[in-house]
Amino acid sequence: MSVATASLRTENARALLKALADPLRLRVIEALGGGERCVCDLTSDLGLAQSKLSFHLKVLKEAGLLADRQEGRWIYYRLRPEAIEQLRRWLAELGAQCGTPATPCP
Predict the structure, then answer these.
(1) What is the 3-state secondary structure (H, E, C) of the chain?
(2) In order of start, what are the domains of the chain with their CATH numbers?
(3) pTM of the model
(4) C-alpha span between 25 and 32 (Å, rounded)
(5) pLDDT tens across 22-57, in order?
């Protein structure tokens, strides 16, 4: 893997982790773990005002974690499994390398 590719993957992982760092956004991710949901259901299930939920959905969507579709006046959100898989692979690579011993000092 080239340095540019590794850097790009690290930047993507950083964006995903930053989006997931907020407890409310984690709740949204967990709520979507069972499949696609209407924003009206998420608002009521999570006990959030629509404006607050919309902000968090926007952050997650911009990070690439969510996809949406509109049907009539309702918007439905779902997780993007490829984004979760990308983060999983990045973490797996990091975990596989973390046991490498340091080069002895001269």
Answers:
(1) CCHHHHHHHHHHHHHHHHHHCCHHHHHHHHHHCCCCEEHHHHHHHHCCCHHHHHHHHHHHHHCCCEEEEEECCEEEEEECHHHHHHHHHHHHHHHHHCCCCCCCCC
(2) 7-84 (1.10.10.10)
(3) 0.82
(4) 11
(5) 999 999 999 999 999 999 999 999 999 999 999 999
